[in-house]
Amino acid sequence: MNEETSPHGICFGFEGLSLGEARRPHTATALDETEVLQISLQGLEALQVSMSDEWVQRLSRRSTEQMVEQALRTMPLFHGLLQKTFREMSALFEASECGSAGMVVFAEGDPGNKLFILLSGCVNITKGGAKLSTLVADPALPRPFFGESALLDGLPRNASVTTAGPSRLLVLQSKHFTRFSLLVPDFVSRLARIKKLREKHTEILVAAENDRELAKTAGANNPLRGGSPLSKVERRNSIQMAKRAESLLGGNP
Q1: Of 19, 67, 95, 173, which is the most exposed, with the fewest CB atoms less than 10 Å away?
Q2: Across-strand partners of 173?
Q3: What secondary structure letter does DSSP report for 76?
């Protein structure tokens, strides 16, 4: 589903503690050489650890907070924040699972009461039935985010977001936004910088596409003439960079 790293380790598999003999709902696979500490139910009993629902919930919450903290650290939007700030921020988010394509995250006209970070999967952004863009969560890239505009403005959603496949989201609800704003007091200016970067990459994409069309027209008018190999490589790299930036930066609805 996703890849997580942490200098302090990640706790997982806790859901099995409350499932008893039931089968695991997910599969965990090591992608590289990995050291894992494992403790059984018998081991917990030997340590006299209470297996109450409250204990399992606390363990689950702590694991989620670790995962959230690692995701937030990858995002340019939060670069430069203190470690303590990341820890406190992680407690404000909750995880949400969307198991299939076509699930509505929010619809145009809905209240703008949540900010979303895409942990895994992809979502489509549409307005009036027309597709505006697709955000994709790439494990090698910062997580894209969306939904901040309506949350800041207090206005209804100006677009709809639906899943394009199984996806995991982090959700910041409006009731936690005051605390979030205290932790990140320059959040609006950070968004402005991200917006400028997104606009710059959009300009690169448009310019590269226009250059490609001009080269195609010139080649059609003169079959012996075409763009140099270097210009083709530059155009391709510009387009790829712009599309990559558009996906990872996210933002708006």
Answers
A1: 19
A2: 114
A3: G
Report CA 13 to chain centroid distance, whole Å: 22
Mean pLDDT of 182-191: 94
Place of tokens 């403005």: 153
Rg (CA), the chain: 22
Q: 162 in helix, strand or coil?
A: strand
CB 69 within 8 A of CB 87: yes
Q: What is the pLDDT of residues 119-147, one digit of tens each?
A: 899 999 999 989 988 999 887 777 889 99
- Per DSSP, helices labelled H in the chain are 15-19, 41-46, 53-73, 83-90, 148-153, 177-183, 187-221, 229-249
Three-class SS string for 3-60?
A: CCCCCCCCCCCCHHHHHCCCCCCCCCCCCCCCCCCCCCHHHHHHCCCCCCHHHHHHHH
CA triple 91-92-93, angle to 5 deg: 95
Picking from 123, 152, 10, 150, the residue whose alpha carbon sits closest to that of residue 67 is: 10
CA distance 216 to 29: 47
